[in-house]
Write a structure and sequence with these properties.
This protein is α+β, with helices and mostly antiparallel strands. The chain has three helices and eleven strands.
Length: 181
């Protein structure tokens, strides 16, 4: 019967989860790829995000909060951001320290992560500012309609100037979206 369960999982988009995975998937969340992490736990890539192993149990990071991921030497490095506020009509992001996961057998996880992160980005623009700069990124959020504007400033960037620029960018984006229907 194991073959039947795998077949149904592939047909329904609900791939097979590891037996010891304790995370709770959303009803509309589909498993896309799974990889075992050396030292314990699994990376589980789903339609809504990437589940990371944590001491308290697995935690899902939405694709819109994965700023970057790199793959090399059996290691997937994930650069995650936190939503720390709102600035000028955009979601303000702050980067976490990168996390490195050495995978026993990567399977399709690196390819799925790359594809999902890339697909979540509609546009991006770097703006140099006094004291640093900032990335302005329009992203799709899994499970929600529409696009969200995110801004990720460099440390030391003038936040009051950033708020003014972000508000202008947000207005231009709304105008562009209205014109393009």
């Amino acid at each position: 019967m194991g073959w039947l369960r795998r077949l149904v999982g592939r047909l329904t988009g609900r791939g097979e989860l590891p037996a010891d995975f304790t995370g709770e998937l959303a009803d509309d969340e589909n498993v896309l790829a799974v990889a075992e992490v050396r030292g314990g736990g699994h990376l589980v890539a789903t339609s809504l995000g990437l589940w990371l192993p944590e001491p308290a149990g697995p935690r899902r990071v939405g694709w819109h909060l994965v700023g970057k991921a790199t793959w090399g030497a059996e290691t997937l490095t994930v650069f995650e951001s936190d939503e720390v506020g709102e600035i000028g009509g955009a979601v303000l992001l702050a980067d976490r320290a990168p996390r490195r996961f050495v995978l026993s057998a990567a399977g399709h996880v690196p390819e799925v992560v790359h594809a999902r992160v890339t697909a979540s980005i509609r546009s991006r623009h770097r703006q140099e500012l006094p004291g640093g700069g900032a990335w302005f990124v329009q992203r799709r959020v899994p499970g929600r309609d529409g696009i969200v504007l995110q801004v990720r400033p460099d440390p030391g960037t003038n936040t009051s100037l950033l708020a003014d620029i972000t508000a202008k960018v947000a207005i231009r984006l709304v105008d562009t979206q209205r014109r393009n229907g």
